[in-house]
Amino acid sequence: MDTVREPLVVLDGELRVLTASRSFYLAFKVTRDKVEGRMLYDLGNGQWDIPALRTLLQEIIPQHTTMEEYEVEHEFPGIGRRTMLLNARQVFYEGNNSTSLLLAIEDVTERRALEREKDALLAQKDLLLREMNHRVSNSLQIIASILLLKAQTVQSVETRRHLEEAHERVVAVATVQEQLHPQPMASRSMPEAT
Known about the structure:
- This protein has four helices and five strands.
- By secondary structure, the chain is α+β, with helices and mostly antiparallel strands.
- It has two domains: about 10-105, PAS domain (Beta-Lactamase, 2-Layer Sandwich), CATH 3.30.450.20; about 115-180.
- It starts with 7 loop residues before the first strand and ends in a 14-residue tail after the last helix.
- About 15% of the residues are buried.
């Protein structure tokens, strides 16, 4: 057990600690005399005394089940607020017909913090993209309107035709931009050529 990097605890059928890995003692900054022989729920300041966890662990041996990635977030003495994933399996010893539980503990505090940071950055990126798309859409609307107004006020037929063609191109670009980035709000129609 001492060669395993993640903290491990071996519990008897009554959830009393039989032994723990060296990594458990290092991770939780506790000593063997404070752990071995004690009920799991009595360790530290009672951080493992969680009714749902107790129920899950008590069902593993009689029902031959396992516990996968049960998340515990708690203020642990000596190491602070941590998020732990717990996995438990039944271990049967043929020689003496005894059964115990192997409880593996993975500290995912940093992973959860990075996930929250990533989610916040993605939300910020989405907000900035929506704002940029909104500004591009508004700018294209303004350009199209100015081109259309200018086309209606010029005397030259050729200049009017060029302005109307430019207006149509801007409307086409705005349509493509709208299709690439649909707006959740009510339709934002571009001025039509007259």
